[in-house]
Design a protein that fits this description.
Elements (H helix, E strand, L loop, with lengths): L1 H12 L19 H5 L6 E6 L4 H14 L6 E3 L4 E6 L2 H7 E2 L10 E12 L4 E14 L5 E10 L2 H11 L1
Antiparallel strand pairs: 1-6, 2-3, 3-5, 4-7, 5-6, 6-7
């Protein structure tokens, strides 16, 4: 378990920005062309907040999830991870971009949001990943529209980072 946490932390730390003061987001989502070819997109955004403790940032992130109507399926304060998933149509429309869909009616979008908070010496690092899938499965269980991978629109991450600035 400890090795998994170390590996996840090392991966998350690789793209962080160091800022002492208000939150500053990473440049717009950069998507690797080869990742698009393989059907996966990169949607992780990370920031460093230099003037707040990780515990305070964790509680603010938890409150933001609740304000968005997300019930956290993972809420592990000791390792700093909050995660939620669901299939709310309104949330899926706001948070997910599914460019591979040819049909837009009766589409079911499933989202997954993971936030991780950890120490940054002075302050806290915050990493957020939003992704999901969209398709149409009928009552009999048949795929009427094959599922496609969806990337983040950036709306959730930007709203969270704005909330953490306060």
């Amino acid at each position: 378990m400890r090795r998994i946490i170390i590996v996840i932390s090392a991966a998350a730390l690789s793209g962080c920005i160091q800022v002492y003061g208000p939150v500053k987001t990473v440049a717009p989502d950069s998507v690797n062309a080869s990742a698009l070819d393989s059907g996966t997109t990169l949607a992780t955004k990370s920031v460093q907040i230099g003037n707040r403790k990780p515990e305070e940032v964790y509680l603010a992130t938890q409150a933001f999830f609740q304000a968005q109507g997300l019930a956290a399926t993972v809420n592990a304060k000791d390792i700093g991870i909050i995660a939620a998933s669901g299939n709310d149509d309104a949330a899926g429309e706001r948070w997910l971009d599914c460019p591979g869909l040819k049909q837009t009616q009766n589409i079911q979008k499933i989202y997954r949001i993971v936030a991780q908070i950890w120490h940054a010496g002075e302050g806290a690092n915050v990493s957020v990943e939003v992704n999901g899938a969209a398709g149409l499965v009928t009552v009999d269980g048949n795929d009427k529209i094959k599922p496609v991978a969806c990337a983040s629109t950036g709306v959730f991450e930007n709203a969270l980072f704005q909330a953490l600035k306060k």
